[in-house]
Automatic annotation (TrEMBL):
A single GO BP: methylation
Record's protein name: SAM-dependent methyltransferase
Signal peptide: none
Alphabetical list of Pfam families matching this protein: Methyltransf_19
Sorted UniProt keywords: Methyltransferase, Transferase
InterPro entries cross-referenced by the UniProt entry: SAM-dependent_MTases_sf, SAM_dep_MeTrfase_SAV2177_type
Keyword flag Transferase: yes
EC id: 2.1.1.-
GO molecular function, one term: methyltransferase activity
Enzyme class: transferase
Organism: Streptomyces polyrhachis
Length: 265
């Protein structure tokens, strides 16, 4: 754990991690979170699908990285509340010696982290850093306590960068973290996109309900975070289209969320 100050939990104000937990069918949320979540889902029902599909995307990506790509270190920034098939569970299930560092600034996540985010193998290591992604240098320094930054690391920003309103700042955050990683490291990034009217209206409802504004960007803008990297096939695509199983491919529907995996050269 880091020594960053932990703010108190405010159950009366909708909070992103708890709203997402609600959409995923979790129990770690309050009435204010459920009200905000319902307001968004009323105008954009696919948000619930997005929440579920984002976890399936994470599982497919981590399986690929821990498997054929041979990655043994993961830095999951903005992890959110623990649910099922978390990064460390998937990675260590394939490569028992995987090391995983989670990063989040939500006090509720902090309260759950020590109890739930534990290594699932004797060889594996799982730790949690309480930090905001607007402090990427601190995150890198804390991660280096657990990870060997001379060896490839998979850096993950999974549906979190929209909380930064300035696209240039968003790119800078990603670039700063990736600059500290060696060649062969991966960037995994997905986010909601402004590719449909309903999702944009859903974002407006979130703000009206008291939630923190979430900026939807274009797939092209998300792709700018991978400048200078080699994208794994199939590139920047809707997350339901990133290497789905045969069954997932048959069942896939378009959602306004795009993602990709890039290799640092």
């Amino acid at each position: 754990m880091s020594d960053h100050q932990v703010s108190p939990i405010d159950p009366a104000t909708p909070h992103a991690a708890r709203i997402w937990n609600y959409w995923m069918g979790g129990q770690d949320n309050y009435p204010a979170d459920r009200e905000a979540g319902d307001a968004v889902a009323e105008v954009y029902p696919d948000i619930v699908t997005m929440a579920v599909q984002s976890r399936r995307f994470l599982v497919r990506v981590v399986r690929h990285l821990a498997g054929e790509a041979g990655i043994r270190q993961f830095l999951d920034i903005g992890t959110g509340l623990p649910t099922m098939q978390n990064t460390h569970e998937v990675a260590q299930g394939i490569a028992p010696d995987s090391r995983v560092v989670y990063v989040d600034n939500d006090p509720l996540v902090l309260a759950h982290a020590e109890a739930l985010l534990r290594a699932v193998t004797p060889e594996g290591v799982t730790t949690y850093v309480h930090a905001d992604y607007h402090d990427p240098e601190f995150i890198v320094a804390e991660a280096a306590r657990t990870l060997d930054l001379s060896r490839p690391v998979a850096v993950m920003f999974m549906g979190v960068l929209g909380y930064e309103p300035d696209h240039a700042v968003q790119r800078s955050i990603v670039a700063t973290v990736m600059a500290a990683m060696p060649a062969g490291s991966r960037l995994v990034l997905w986010d909601g996109t402004d590719t449909g009217e309903a999702v944009v209206e859903g974002g407006e409802k979130l703000v009206e309900s008291g939630g923190v504004p979430y900026i939807l960007r274009s797939p092209q803008q998300l792709g700018e975070c991978f400048a200078g990297m080699e994208l794994a096939e199939p590139g920047m695509v809707p997350i339901t289209r990133w290497r789905p199983s045969e069954q997932e491919a048959r069942d896939a529907v378009h959602i306004d969320a795009y993602g990709a995996v890039g290799r640092k050269l």
